[in-house]
Write the structure tokens for this entry.
Amino acid sequence: MELALAARATERLRLGPAVTNPVTRHPAVTAAAVATLQVESEGRAVVVFGRGDSAVLQLGIPRLPPPSSSGA
């Protein structure tokens, strides 16, 4: 709600919902939130993804190894 209000009150400010964690927040929820903000702000929405290690560890989910670059 606050970001939508900021979008209406400004013309150049880029707006984003802070860093989101793709492990603990479903991608559809993130996509819907950013799409709505993108419309409300006339294209000024930004999204940033974080690794989310601390949240994953708090939930007791084992940490995955980094992806390999073998091209397989």
